[in-house]
Amino acid sequence: MKCILxxxxxxxxxxxxxxxxGVFSKIYAIYNLNYASYILKCFxxxxxxxxxxxxxxxxxxxxxWRDKLDLLLHRLNIxxxxxxxxKAFGLSLSDQYWLKPYGADIKYDDINxxxxxxxxxxxxxxxxxxxxxxxxxxxxxxxxxxxxxxxLRKLGLLKMV
Length: 161
Fold this sequence. Notes:
Layout: E1 2-7, E2 10-18, E3 23-30, H1 46-58, H2 69-75, H3 81-86, E4 97-101, H4 108-111, H5 121-128
Antiparallel strand pairs: 1-2, 1-4, 2-3
């Protein structure tokens, strides 16, 4: 998918993103690195820049070691956690970065989780329920639960009741 990495409403760069693999495969243009995350300002060449960009963006998602992640993905009919991250433009409650599909007419002010309500019932049901069946209705995945701040059990820290 061709997309623009945004910092609120400021374009940072234009890139090709593969949500299945969770990597940026090509950088088309860099618009404004002053608005980029610090890790993106430390690169030597195109390959290391793309690697840093991919690692940084993957780090926004739910960690692969999170307990019962595979069950959650199955219940939501999602293959990878990076695909889950993409369902809400990569938005998070921890910063203002997001991926805008190239050519889309949306602004941060229209979609951010700070100013707008978001759905969480289906996600919470899928992540915390003792029932192992898939969510059959179309679940709204426009939620900050798609990021690492998700309400999944952490290994050894919480017991299911």
